[in-house]
Structures are given as structure tokens and as C-alpha cells.
Amino acid sequence: xxxxxxxxxxxxxxxxxxxxxxxxxxxxxxxxxxxxxxxxxxxxxxxxxxxxxxxxxxxxxxxxxxxxxxxxxxxxxxxxxxxxxxxxxxxxxxxxxxxxxxxxxxxxxxxxxxxxxxxxxxxxxxxxxxxxxxxxxxxxxxxxxxxxxxxxxxxxxxxxxxxxxxxxxxxxxxxxxxxxxxxxxxxxxxxxxxxxxxxxxxxxxxxxxxxxxxxxxxxxxxxxxxxxxxxxxxxxxxxxxxxxxxxxxxxxxxxxxxxxxxxxxxxxxxxxxxxxxxxxx
Length: 281
Known about the structure:
Layout: E1 6-7, H1 15-20, E2 34-38, E3 41-45, E4 51-57, E5 59-60, E6 68-71, E7 79-82, E8 88-94, E9 96-97, E10 105-108, E11 115-117, E12 123-126, E13 132-133, E14 141-147, E15 150-156, E16 162-168, E17 170-171, E18 179-182, E19 188-191, E20 197-203, E21 205-210, E22 213-218, E23 221-225, E24 231-237, E25 239-243, E26 246-251, E27 254-258, E28 264-269, H2 271-280
Parallel strand pairs: 1-13
Antiparallel strand pairs: 2-3, 3-4, 5-6, 6-7, 7-8, 9-10, 10-11, 11-12, 13-14, 14-15, 15-16, 17-18, 18-19, 19-20, 21-22, 22-23, 23-24, 25-26, 26-27, 27-28
């Protein structure tokens, strides 16, 4: 019997994410259409608020590579991909699917295994034993296998070749040629694209590197490290998230921004920023 496959599905529906994430995603360079919920369904509007694609989808994402991942409504919803005119380019027939990243997306059909497709819907990779898959970043995609000792994560390239054998308890995505991974003891560190350890396992949580810097959590507090694992900002904030060239932070129940040296530039009371942060996180 084939194992039940699940895909990690990225649903991005708030325009603030596109302008403030700071992740350097070149695939979302100009936002033309924004998915918003109207009643029970998602529609697409332009920046002036004009409805371009009528409400009809159970879920909807931003456009990447001129395609958007959407889910049909109804008792048996399925995932597919539409163009900016609202027409399906890839039929909504998948039980699970991811957004397109680096010209490829992962999909799972009923009672099947994860397969990677291109923008034409052509199958490029099939992972027979994988349980979960992540999108491609820096040319590699994380996938997980389950054995007697639990779930382990590894990485494949765009040819489907195993580059890093499954061995990690959890993983992020590659960025800046580095990836955060978790060991069996629950500590996070960073590896290179050959699987070699770059920064020792020492953090409670570790985020992606962006422009040579990464947010990490230690002792329940967030800080910032450089590519050598040296702290640029010691762990001190309750929450911290990349916001272009600044960082949105929470400290003592107040929200504001700091620069890469930890210098606080603005502070606000919780309220709206707390809501925005939860969306980003």
C-alpha cells in the first residue's frame, strides 16, 4: 500500500507579506493581483481594489511565475493552478499541492505519492517513499521519510537525485546556500549544500539566512547571527521577524523596529502590530 503523502502548502494571502518579508524572493517582483476573501470564497483584486477574478475559490495564493495555486470549493476540493485571467492552466485535480518555486511545484494526486511538475503540468520527479516535501529553494528541496526511529529529513536536487541523505528531525529551506536543520536532541544549526555542518547545533529554533544574517532563538529569546554563527544581536526579543533591511520586534509587550545592530528605531504598543506579526510568523 502506498503511504499517504502530504505536501507543505504555502498560503500567502496578505499583501503586507509581499512588501515586508524581505526574503529576496525574485519570483514575486511585481504584484498585480491580490487574493482576498469575500464571504466564503477567495477572489482576486488589483491594487485599486477592482475585482479581476470573481469569488470562487476555497483557498488562493499570490501569483508566482504567472501562476497561482488555488483550491476549488465544494465537498471534495482539489488544488490546481490558474493564470491571471482566472483560467486553469493546470487542472484542479490534486489532493495536495505547493506553490511554484524555481519553476517547479509539488503535487499529490489521490492515493499517490509526491511528484514535481513544471508550469505545463508535466511530471519531472516522482518520490516513491516520501511522506512530506518542501518547495525548491537554492536548487534543493527537503523531503521526509519515516522509519522505525521516526521521521527524518533529507534533500534532493531538481533531477530527483538525493544530495543529502535523510538524517534531520526537522528542516527549513535553503537560502544563501545554507539551511537550518534540527538534530535528534532538538537543537538547531546550519548546514551547507553538501550536508556539512556550518554552524553548530545550539539554538532552540533557527530561521533562514537572508543577506548573510539569520534570526535564531535561544532561551526563549530571539537574536541575530552572521554567517559564522556570531551574534550580531544577542537573544533579547520576545519576537523578531525580517522586515526588508530592518527587523520587526516585540519587547516587554511593545512592538517596534531595530536595525542589524539591535538599535531600536521605533516602538508601538501591541494591538495591530501583534496581529500583523502573527500573520508573518
